[in-house]
Amino acid sequence: MRERPGPRWTAFAFLLSVSLAAGYAARAADAEVTITATRIPEPVDQIPASVTTVSGAELRARDSSDMASALSLVSGVEAPAGGDAGPSSSVPSFWGLHEFDAFLLVMDQVPWGGAFNPAITTLNLNDVERIEVLKGAAPVMYGATSFVGVVHVLHYPAGEATDEASVALGNYGSVRGAAAFALPRWGDYRQSFAADGERLGFADGREKLADGRLLYRGALDLGAGQLRVDANLSIVRDVPPSPVIRAGSALNTLTPINANFNPADAALDEDKYQLALAYTRPTAWGTWETLASFSRSHVDDVRAFLHSDLSGAADTQNQNRLILDDYFDTHLANDLGPWSLLVGADLLYGYGRQVTRNGNSAYTVPLDGSVVPPPTTQLPVNEVGYVADKRLFAGQYAQLDWKPDARWDLLLGLRLNETGEDKLASDLTLPPFTPAGQYTAGSDSRNVTRPTETAGVSYRVFREAKDELVVYADFRNAFKPAALDFGPDFQPAVLLPETAKSYEAGVKGVAADGQLTWQAEVFRLDFTNLVVATQSGFLTNAAGERLRGFELEGRYAVTRDLALAANYAWHDAHFTQYQFFDAGTGNYVDVGGNQLPLSPRQLAAAAVLYQPAQGLNSTLVATYVGRRFLDEENLAPVGGYTRLDATLGCRFGHYELDVEGTNLTNQRPAVSASEFGSESFYLLNARTLWLRLAYRMR
Q1: Mean pLDDT, to the nearest integer, of 405-425?
Q2: Phi and psi at residue 577, to the nearest 5°
Q3: Which of 18, 307, 366, 422 could disulfide-pair with 606, CB 3.0 to 4.6 Å?
Q4: What is the tens place of the pLDDT at every residue in 340-374?
């Protein structure tokens, strides 16, 4: 095993003792507004759904530069860094489901990753105004894109910014810097610019993270409306780690924890360019808004995976990938007193093309990690794969929001989805992988037209001064075309869409004269047509899952400068049907009723945040992940663990100097599974320490 048993009950008691709170000392007096659930600015307390807002002030107070830290105080959400997409990425989970593609990532109203997978590696968390997290399927305005959650990152609008710059030095030779400023106005034209970059080292000396991002935002009052432009550039140059293989009921002890078995030229490199144009104007029928986004990504993916038999043999892959990702939306929002009607249409277009050169059993290395394998350019290629996939997801939608009085809010959404996918794949195998050269090609397509619906209602039980109590319930019927993982294997078929129905009920409120805000929810989601691997390695729709549980969170401002934070979630995520093929025994096993791999029953978090305008400041965040299993058969249990992150700094005038640490307990449990390496897992990053200097203009 690679982890020490977590102090489960000690950590759990500590987390609950801090009291009900979550997030950064936002006061109820500052009315929180969300646009993710409705596209129209709406008070969070009226939305019949679970919505959490993470302010940009909180992110900067905790120096959150990745999704793992940014979402650590959102109840029931995990987002450990790393995974198959490399050290710049993460694998978020909602409601106990650890699926990289089951949630929707949105940046400034644009689905980030579009018709393919969430593009976490190029997500920009610099100059963020707020992050909105919506639990459950995406609203009808975003189509067939997610089942369990939406993460919407919103940057400061053009002409506004944090107006600060920072630089930080860390262990393992790490360095990072960021800056964001509002630029001078040109008449009616407002603009702002943000840039950041980092180069991180890790306990694994070969693992590297190097990336940089630029964001330019402009806005111009044009006619009766406003024209907006966003331009994003993201450059990623990462060297991935090697996942650790499970042997029986635990992670193996033959490979050192920081061993890296990737080839010498291992890399996960990406260049992404994105341009978005939007125009909003009032009309006699309401506010009309049109948004168009265009992006292009080029990815080089070079790495290797050890065989699960721990023989030391490894399969290499050298992939070259092009992804085009376009988005168009136009909608009309009409406010008719107690009625608000949103009608519109959108289009997601994705095109992905990949050539992969595989070396099956390309080399054998000692398991102690003492040898750096040769680069793939010096290794034989015995399999060449090609895939071209075109996706077109269109839809027309309408959402009605009816408030008959100050207590009630009824939300109804209906969408007609029209999804189409065309896929071409080929596979050329060469000796010695096959006795003779063999070429196989196939194509497939699938068109689906079907509706999706949402319905929710909230009722304000009482309101007195700043305090209130609201109850709500909602239902969502969603589907999503099967994801394309761009793996090394030949998979010509276009699979059936995955489908889900979810039910949610909750209560939220404000107490203590506005100092305490809180919410709690219960949920159930039934998932069908789940994509799983067969004995031959091909993917098919053959499983079902049920997610259920409850989550609670809140906020409490002790004083203007001091906040306490905590949340708790209990999840029961299990298979309802799945004939799992056990490669060890060569038999199929019915795992219906078993807990999903890496899905803990209990999750909790707590924080103390002291952030005065001047002088000493400090934050302490503890997150607890409970007992879970590493396998579908639930024969490999692992104990819980607690992660501690902290900052200690001093603000003097326009400057701030901080000492920061993440994963101070230095535990290294398995936190995400590889979809490419059989029975392989990525570990929590080791302890990192930082010294940061920041300059704020205001």
Answers
A1: 95
A2: -155, 140
A3: 18
A4: 999 999 999 999 999 999 999 999 999 999 999 99
SS3 content of the chain, % helix, strand, coil (to 5): 5, 60, 35
**Does residue 512 come out as left (phi exceeding 0), alpha (psi in the -120 to 50 range) or beta?**
left
Nearest Cα neighbor of 521 from 74, 35, 17 is: 74
Q: What are phi and psi of 240, to 5 degrees?
A: -80, 160
Cis omega before residue 338 (within 30°)?
no
- Residue 650: pLDDT over 50: yes
* Chain center to CA of 6: 25
Name the residue among 278, 299, 288, 272 with its Cα closest to residue 86. Answer: 299
Q: What is the pLDDT of residues 473-508, one digit of tens each?
A: 999 999 888 888 888 888 888 888 888 999 999 999
CA distances from 467 to 68, 606, 655 (A): 32, 23, 37
Q: Which residues contact 561 (CB under 8 A, 6 or more apart)?
A: 25, 610, 611, 612, 613
Read off the tokens for 532: 């799983």
Pairing of strands 225-238, 670-673: unpaired
Number of Cβ within a 10 Å radius of residue 49: 26
DSSP character at residue 65: -
pTM for the structure as a whole = 0.93
Nearest to 670 by CA among 387, 249, 143, 221: 249
How far, in Å, CA of 513 to CA of 367, rounded?
A: 61
Asked if 265 contacts 319 with a C-beta cutoff of 8 angstroms, the reply is: no
Residue 11 main-chain phi, psi, to 5 deg: -65, -40
Residue 152 tokens read as: 């919407």
CA nearest to 303, candidates 244, 386, 359, 252: 359
With bands split at pLDDT 50, 70 and 90, how would you rate the model's confidence at 11?
very low
CA angle, residues 564, 567, 571, in degrees to nearest 5: 170
Between CA 102 and CA 107 the distance in angstroms is: 17
User: With contact defined as beta carbons under 8 Å apart, do 332 and 279 qualify?
Assistant: no
E strands within 253-369? Answer: 267-283, 286-306, 313-336, 339-364
Domains of the chain in start order, with CATH, are 8-696 (2.40.170.20)
Residue recorded with tokens 């530069």: 65
Residue in the block written with tokens 């015995």 = 382
CB 370 within 8 A of CB 307: no
Averaged pLDDT, 611-627 = 96
Banded model confidence at residue 34, pLDDT cuts 50, 70, 90: confident
> How many other C-beta atoms lie within 10 A of the C-beta of residue 570?
18
- Give the list of residues 6+ apart from residue 451 with CB closer than 8 angstroms, or none: 414, 415, 416, 417
Which of 44-53, 198-207, 238-247, 601-610 shows the lowest mean pLDDT across its residues? 44-53
Tokens of 591: 């795992």
Among 12-21, 56-65, 489-498, which range has the highest average pLDDT?
56-65
Assess whether pLDDT exceeds 80 at residue 542. Answer: no
**26, pLDDT greater than 50:** no
